[in-house]
Amino acid sequence: MLTDREVLSTINMLRSEHLDVRTVTLGINLFDCASHDFDVFEIKVRSKIQKYARRLVETCNAVGDRYGIPVVNKRISVSPIGTVGASFTREQMVRACQILDESAKEVGVDFIGGFGALVEKGITPGERNLIDALPEALATTDRVCSSINVGSTKTGINMDAVSLMGERIKDCAAATAERDGIGCAKLVVFCNIPQDVPFMAGAYLGVGEPDVVIDVGVSGPGVVNKALQRAIANNHRKLTLSEISEVIKHTAYKVTRVGELIGRDVARRMDLPFGVADLSLAPTPAVGDSVGEIFQTLGLSSIGAPGSTAILAMLNDAVKKGGVFASSHVGGLSGAFIPVSEDSAIEAAARSGSLTLEKLEAMTCVCSVGLDMIAIPGDTPAETIAAMIADEAAIGMINSKATAVRVIPVPGKKVGDVAVFGGLLGEASIIRVPGGDSAPFVKFGGRIPAPIHSLRN
């Protein structure tokens, strides 16, 4: 139960601290739509998405109006199309992506995720066709997002898939060159991808999930930062880091309660099961809605300065503890995101050189995702991008956590230039990629074996 003071505090979060429900994501299982006849597949997919999603936007708006809490994005996640469309050709995979995009537009959602594949141990012909279709598919659609899982703690890292994704990321950038390679902003490569992520671009509906389910993603970096600023200002003595962690934990508790309240009401009105609340401190380019500003409140000149990894570890842990206490159904990624272009303070640190790619990689050891929304020079070799993916996958594999890479090699631009993506994707200065040749390593192919601690059963 919340006290009157806590209720007033939550209201203030909504009014002036950028608290919102970042997304309500409707998961839809498409395995019962699978067919060797593509026309039958199309009819079934359109029908099922229309059946369950036609009321999603109006329901989210009605619930948001009732509580005075905006639901910023309404989204759909579907079963991995690489498996659903196992018999499809490359051209049919492109068309399948377009069908998802058209269906998303028909029901009015902002994004639809699930045009992806799980290839951590091997690639089927259908999954290979989907990966080969990515450049054209993402260039000819607006709302589709794709996630490819290339590794896990249980299976190791599929380096053949890693190498292939390095090439396709370059191809996606080239296919959307006139928009600064924005196709790559809709494509993320994972290790240990969760099955219930409501945030894009990683959202898809896992095989163990219900037929249809409502997941909610709540974001409140501005709320956490304001809570810390108040706590520091109102204490006449110096706070310890243990006490600061408690402030973050209590704030995360309240934010999670708000998110679950909204998600459960949407699910009830749509007569669907409620899945998970993903409490991820996902920023936006708006000033005051930044994860990077939290680092400055806690005494660093900017994110990227020595101490950044320690602060991020504390922040991530406290957010998870507060969320788990608030809800029995916390899922997804639930932690702190550090997407460069989507966070004004992080982007400014990268632009000034205070935050480098090497430091970002170190911080991904303790954040909830990985190298996210980072613009790199357009002439970066595909093998270098593949090696970056392998490094992140290794961090995730060894530490039994989700890691991911969403980088944009911006065609025609070099270090210091700026890429503009717009909306929640923001803009980013092109940052330096470490030198050296990774091609011979990447070309070995095969699989990096799973670590010894994967043998737990």
Q: What fold name stands as the CATH topology of the largest domain?
A: Anaerobic Ribonucleotide-triphosphate Reductase Large Chain
Tally of helical segments: 15
Q: Name the CATH architecture of the largest domain.
A: Alpha-Beta Barrel
By helix and strand content, what is the structural category?
Answer: alpha/beta
State the share of residues found in helices, binned by percent: 40-55%
Keywords summarizing the entry:
457 residues, Anaerobic Ribonucleotide-triphosphate Reductase Large Chain, two-stranded antiparallel ribbon, 14 strands, 44% helix
Topology overview:
Blueprint: H1 4-16, E1 20-28, H2 38-53, H3 56-67, E2 71-78, H4 81-84, H5 90-107, E3 111-113, E4 117-118, H6 125-139, E5 144-152, E6 156-158, H7 159-175, E7 187-191, E8 212-219, H8 221-234, H9 241-269, E9 274-279, H10 292-297, H11 308-326, H12 344-352, H13 357-363, E10 371-377, H14 382-399, E11 403-410, E12 418-420, E13 427-429, H15 439-442, E14 447-448
Parallel strand pairs: 1-2, 2-3, 3-5, 4-5, 5-7, 8-9, 10-11
Antiparallel strand pairs: 1-8, 5-6, 6-14, 7-11, 12-13
